[in-house]
Amino acid sequence: MKTLEATQAKAKEWVFEILAPYWAKYGVHDDGMFAEEITHDGKVVDNYRRLMVQARQIFAFCELGSLGWNGNWKALVENSVRHVLDNGMNEKGLFIHTFDTDGTVLDARLDLYNQAFGIFALGYAGKYLNRTDLFSTALKSLSMLETEWLRLEGGFWEGEITPCPPYRQNPHMHIFEAALANYRFSGDLKWKNLKDKIAKLFVSKFQQPCGAVTEYFDKNWAPLDGVQGEIVEPGHCFEWAWLFDIGFDENKGIKTADELNEFARKYGICPQRGVAINEVSVYGEVIDAKARLWPQTERLKAACARFKRTNEQREIKEIAYAWDGLEKYFATDTKGLWHDKMNPDGTFIIENVKASSFYHIVCAFGELIRL
After folding, report:
1. Domain with 333 in it
2. Is the pTM of this model over 0.70?
3. 325: part of which helix (H) or strand (E)?
4. CATH at 27
5. Helices 357-369 + 313-327 axis angle, to 10
6. Which of 59, 111, 254, 318 is least buried, going by the fewest C-beta atoms within 10 A?
7. In total, how many domains does the chain have?
8. pLDDT grade, residue 251 (50/70/90)?
9. Following DSSP, what letter does each residue of 103-172 receive, concatenated?
10. DSSP letters along 221-243, please?
11. Burial (CB count <10 Å: 0-12, 13-18, 19+), residue 93
């Protein structure tokens, strides 16, 4: 088994010498906006540009800067923030869906997922660019959400893109993440209150008696009838576990974090491939045995958080296993790219590399490197 130090050294090598330089050079358009995807032979694909990707890359390069990468992270962030502020927000202070290839608005429809990541990016840019005005901009977005998007049943309206029902927990997870970041960086109690409300909704509605979080709900936040209401994504169990582990003072979230981790580790890992799979049921039955990249990063983050809290040797083993699973996805012809979808037989689906995964990778590496 790898030592923790050996795993950290691997992560530092990948992030500082391979991933960050590659995406800083090839993952940015001439106008300063971040690219959506790159082919495996290194060609940038530019059909549209999602607000979510701009926001995630703003976070990722801020995080790289905070980890000590000495590349041009600040200029990259400043350019993308400028585009988001100039064209990525409507007159109410809410975030659009997509930009066209010239940076103008392509799709102005609103979606909760985009609001979460837009606010998240503003928090990070406010901190690492030393721009307190961005904290104020984020608060304006929050004010509109709380004025126009709150639901009596709890949580938020999900916007104009995804039909409801089903109602989803996932965008609320990213609202929690955005609130946590803005509270840490600005200290404004409005963000703490939002974070705590989402946490209460989670333990009362999203989390099931088995310990897992399900995906799809009716308007009253009851799981949908049938198989759809029983779907558990182990990656989301790990992601929520990480948030509950790091998101509260005095370890108030550890019971929930431990329940989520226990379920996901017991039922959500393929022992043959050593990776977290896409979907199981609340009873632990496999629904989708494919394995995307991002659940591997969330498994790693959850293990890092547990080790930091418990200092237990078994968490060092889990960190090493999670790293080994994640590293499989980096076995590409071009260093700095990755595979996203693993088949049940361990082969990968060959497709363009989505920039949206960079956020997951950098966040996980950051958690590991800082231990």
Report:
1. 4-369
2. yes
3. helix 313-327
4. 1.50.10.10
5. 150
6. 254
7. 1
8. confident
9. SSEEE---BHHHHHHHHHHHHHHHHHTT-HHHHHHHHHHHHHHHHHTB-TTSSB--BSSS-SSSEESHHH
10. SPBPSSGGGGEE-HHHHHHHHHH
11. middle
